[in-house]
Design goal:
Elements: E1 2-5, H1 25-34, E2 42-47, E3 50-56, H2 60-71, E4 78-85, E5 88-89, E6 95-97, H3 104-112, H4 120-126, E7 142-144
Parallel strand pairs: 3-4
Antiparallel strand pairs: 1-4, 2-3, 4-5, 6-7
Length: about 150
């Protein structure tokens, strides 16, 4: 699937994580499972500030959410993904890094077109967690931009 970059000083702070290095593979595995993702078919390895994830995801959406759950964690600068769906490669996801001054409305219009700002709710649904309150997005967060239905 590829290599994805994140801002390693921004995100969920997990036990054992620091700005210099990600949490252990076991801690990250528990965090992914606690989010209801990954089941038993996902393996995680940590090498400094890079997290490697492989195995089978249930869907494209789940694969993208696993990458985001790992990458939006303090200490993670990159996620290297070899996730598959039914032993087939996962399609390239569409992610967006939140910039200072961004709103979800503006992000929706940027990706879906002028007049489509109300589709920000689709972006919120696609990013829960970490987006729990649409008014409180943070610069540096990486968001999944789902395709329009």
């Amino acid at each position: 699937m590829g290599l994805f970059s994140f801002v390693k000083s921004i995100g969920n702070k997990l036990f054992g994580a620091s700005e210099a290095q990600a949490a252990t593979a076991e801690t990250l595995q528990k965090e992914v499972a606690a989010s209801g993702l990954g089941g038993s078919g996902v393996q995680i390895a940590v090498d400094g500030d890079t997290v490697k994830v492989s195995g089978n995801a249930m869907s494209q959406e789940e694969a993208e959410k696993i990458i985001l759950a790992l990458g939006n964690t303090v200490g993670v600068a990159q996620v290297s993904s070899e996730l598959m769906i039914n032993n087939l490669p996962v399609a390239e996801p569409k992610f967006y890094t939140v910039q200072k001054g961004d709103t979800l409305w503006a992000i929706a219009e940027k990706h879906y077109g002028k007049g489509k700002g109300a589709k920000y709710t689709d972006i919120v649904k696609a990013n829960t967690p970490p987006v729990k309150n649409p008014d409180l997005i943070q610069p540096g967060w990486v968001l999944r931009i789902p395709p329009l239905a």
